[in-house]
């Protein structure tokens, strides 16, 4: 199965840093600290204040918001003490999954049928899941027919998710047909990776 989290990493990282900014450690004042995102990447944080600019590029390095001290490392116990509540309250980042279809219809491939169980597992881990299902096709057949086929695929997947226990989840469906190919091909080309639905859970 393909997982597509990259599109959400920056937003998730910035959200987490925004939560952390403004938290106060006893005796240190308000500060930010650089943490890894869900994929293990850190990036950097720039803190600007009347004292100048400080750039954090090392994980667990912190900077006071008033700029009155040099950047400093934040130990795990201090991180938990100062930011434990904020970290616990941070929402799970969105996850995206690709499920693939046999040609011409709404039948999942055998592998994607098995992968569907992981989608259910990850969705059930969220208290109030919001799901979007987007249907896609390859370029075989007229574009209008493929738009309709993509919608049938998305609708079939939404119905299957409900039947498997997600009756209370908010599920939005739409179709891109052949208009948003994963693999660029000429017209009238059968490409298995384009016959898919993209399922995003938030």
What is the secondary structure topology, with strand pairs?
Blueprint: E1 2-3, H1 6-20, E2 24-25, E3 29-33, E4 45-49, E5 52-56, E6 61-64, E7 72-73, H2 76-89, E8 95-100, H3 110-124, E9 130-136, H4 143-163, E10 170-177, E11 196-201
Parallel strand pairs: 9-10
Antiparallel strand pairs: 1-8, 2-3, 3-6, 4-5, 6-7, 8-11, 9-11
Describe this structure in words.
The chain is α+β, with helices and mostly antiparallel strands and 202 residues long. It folds into 2 domains: 2-89, no CATH class; 95-201, OmpA-like domain (60s Ribosomal Protein L30, Chain: A), CATH 3.30.1330. It is 32% helix and 26% strand. It contains 4 helices and 11 strands, in the order βαββββββαβαβαββ. It has helices at 6-20, 76-89, 110-124, 143-163, and strands at 2-3, 24-25, 29-33, 45-49, 52-56, 61-64, 72-73, 95-100, 130-136, 170-177, 196-201. The strands form 3 sheets. Strands 1-8-11-9-10 form a 5-stranded mixed sheet, with helices on one face. It has a 4-stranded antiparallel sheet with strand order 2-3-6-7, covered by helices on one side. It is elongated and about 65 Å long. The two termini are 18 Å apart.
């Amino acid at each position: 199965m393909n997982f597509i989290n990259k599109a959400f990493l920056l937003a998730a990282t910035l959200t987490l840093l925004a939560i952390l900014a403004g938290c106060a450690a006893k005796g240190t004042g308000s500060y930010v600290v650089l943490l890894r995102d869900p994929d293990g990447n850190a990036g950097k944080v720039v803190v600007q204040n009347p004292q100048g600019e400080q750039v954090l590029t090392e994980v667990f390095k912190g900077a006071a918001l008033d700029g009155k001290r040099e950047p400093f490392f934040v130990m795990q116990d201090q991180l938990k003490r100062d930011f434990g509540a904020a970290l616990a309250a941070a929402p799970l980042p969105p996850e995206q999954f690709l499920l693939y279809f046999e040609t011409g219809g709404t039948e999942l491939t055998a592998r994607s049928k098995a992968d569907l169980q992981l989608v259910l597992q990850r969705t059930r881990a969220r208290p109030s899941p919001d799901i979007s299902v987007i249907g896609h096709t390859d370029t075989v057949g007229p574009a209008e027919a493929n738009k309709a086929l993509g919608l049938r695929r998305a609708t079939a997947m939404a119905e299957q998710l409900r039947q498997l226990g997600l009756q209370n989840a908010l599920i939005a469906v739409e179709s891109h047909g052949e208009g948003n190919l994963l693999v660029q091909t000429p017209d009238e080309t059968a490409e298995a990776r384009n016959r898919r639905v993209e399922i995003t859970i938030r």
